[in-house]
Amino acid sequence: MNTSKAPSRRGANGSARRRARQAALTGLYQWLISREDAAAIQVNVEEQEVHAGCDQAHFEALLHGCIDQSTTLDAALARHVDRPTAELSPVEHAALMIGAFELSNCVDIPYRVVINEAVELTKSFGGTDGHKYVNGVLDKTAADLRPVEVQAARAARV
After folding, report:
1. What is the pLDDT along the chain (158 residues), one digit of tens a residue?
2. How far apart are CA 118 and CA 38, in angstroms?
3. 104 neighbors 73 (Cβ within 8 angstroms)
4. Domains (range + CATH), the chain
């Protein structure tokens, strides 16, 4: 009888998906500062500790998807930010891009999880109250991008 367990999806600092988001945040931060080629950024991030234990497919989808769709993502966020996205902190901007990307492209992830994960990224890597800003912007963006899911969740709370 085999008593060994299947490999865990959890790394030292959370789930493989959370680690993928952290790695993508690192890459997006670099891209927002340098506008370097996405492939070069991916190689750089993959050499860093932040990449260890991450969900590789999700990391690649986030990094390349956010860069490829940056104009569309920024347009979705622009309705709810108080300044041009180019003037946001790069950490907050990257977390917002990841959130907007997941809201738009990863419908298997509940919108509340998307928002919570972006907030946690900002708490870990951003400024003191940046997570509050990210929470507010993504809550409003979720209502735009996933209106049926958001309305159903709000109705269930009443």
Report:
1. 333 333 334 444 469 999 999 999 999 999 999 999 999 999 999 999 999 999 999 999 999 999 999 999 999 999 999 999 999 999 999 999 999 999 999 999 999 999 999 999 999 999 999 999 999 999 999 999 999 999 999 999 87
2. 21
3. yes
4. 13-157 (1.10.940.10)
Say which residue the tokens 């109705």 belong to. Answer: 155
SS (H, E, C) the chain: CCCCCCCCCEECCEEHHHHHHHHHHHHHHHHHHHCCCHHHHHHHHHCCHHHCCCCHHHHHHHHHHHHHCHHHHHHHHHCCCCCCHHHCCHHHHHHHHHHHHHHHHCCCCCHHHHHHHHHHHHHHHCCCCHHHHHHHHHHHHHHHHCHHHHHHHHHHHC
Predicted TM-score (pTM) of the model is 0.90
Q: How far apart are CA 30 and CA 69, in angstroms?
A: 16
CA distance 61 to 72: 16
| Backbone torsions φ then ψ of 90, nearest 5 degrees | -60, -35
